[in-house]
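A common beginner's mistake is to predict each chain separately and then try to dock the pieces by hand. The better habit, illustrated here, is to supply every component at once so that their relative placement is modeled jointly.
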Amino acid sequence: QVQLQESGPGLVKLSQTLSLTCTVSGGSISIGGYYWTWIRQHPGKGLEWIGIMFSSGSTSYNPSLRSRLTISVDTSKNQFSLKLSSVTAADTAVYYCARVGVGYYDSSGSYYYYYGMDVWGQGTTVTVSS
Amino acid sequence: QSALTQPPSASGTPGQRVTISCSGSSSSIGSNTVNWYLQFPGTAPLLLIYSNNQRPSGVPDRFSGSKSGTSASLAISGLQSEDEGDYYCAAWDDSLKGVIFGGGTKLTVL
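With all components supplied together, the output reads:
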């Protein structure tokens, strides 16, 4: 089955750029019907959506991060990536990549959208330090 | 766009039925389906309910979801100790053009 694995430095210096990669195994990142997303979780807090890459290659970002964020895909490596510039202590978090299931057909053949994160990476802890 | 609203905590005794509410807006829950996630300490969330009331394979039928207007709820019947964890609702938000999460509900089995 499809598995996701985040990779990247666990420690990033203040004001530098945080770069993470999510490697997709067991399936193609180019397969239709799925999007790819990043989520983070600050220590002891809830889940925060970071951004998403649609199957068209376009992206949508959380407005609070938009000015610093780039999400891209490398289909040849079956990977998608996150770059967050000018990091501060507030960017210290566990970062997750996930696959987003877009929709499904029910038994009658009707299609329903749901945008659910059905496969998650294990998460990677990133600490911003001075 | 604000986060979806969930109670911070919920509790119940083994065998009881517990419900967790999730409130949103017209651009989120009012226009899109709701998904629920369960997160155990130190692990990644897992998809528990999708499209308001659908269970992925492997999720017990003790878990059920519903949606009405701009609100949704998750019900857990026959509560078990292994149900303890953090529950998050989420939905696509048309204004945000992205996913919006609830703040999470910590479920304790007494």
